[in-house]
Design brief:
Length: 133
């Protein structure tokens, strides 16, 4: 974990994190209090909805508590490392309330693809139409 985040994580969650899978084949790392909010929302999804069940199975089913050690490292369980193909080089991407952990080559490939996409700005969700960057 980069030094600039360690103190905030120590203060905000005592170094307690939850790691789970993402559909993009990266890992999501949540501070424990943030994960608890997400988990409560996931549990409330309708159990008869196929997509909701799939999301619950992926996110909750793979959720694993981990802890930052004194050097700011996290020991990831082998099945999660294998899922995200994390062997040598990885990229940690801050996403506000969570981090994404990517295989570096996959991150570079996806990032370049996303940057090259010609998105139709007429199809923006209402929440994004008012966003000013």
């Amino acid at each position: 974990m980069p030094t600039r985040y360690r103190q905030r994580l120590a203060d905000g969650c005592n170094g307690q994190l939850v790691v789970t899978v993402d559909r993009d084949h990266c890992l999501l790392l949540y501070p424990l209090p943030e994960w608890e909010l997400i988990e409560r929302k996931l549990v409330k999804l309708p159990s008869f909805n196929k997509q909701a069940r799939r999301l619950q199975r992926l996110l909750i089913g793979h959720a694993t508590e981990v802890e930052l050690d004194g050097a700011g490292r996290v020991l990831l369980p082998p099945p999660l490392r294998e899922f995200a193909d994390l062997e040598k080089r990885a990229v940690l991407i801050g996403q506000g309330n969570k981090f994404e952990l990517w295989n570096e080559a996959l991150w570079n490939e996806r990032r370049d693809l996303w940057l090259a996409e010609d998105d139709d700005l007429d199809d923006l969700p209402a929440e994004l139409e008012t966003l000013s960057l």
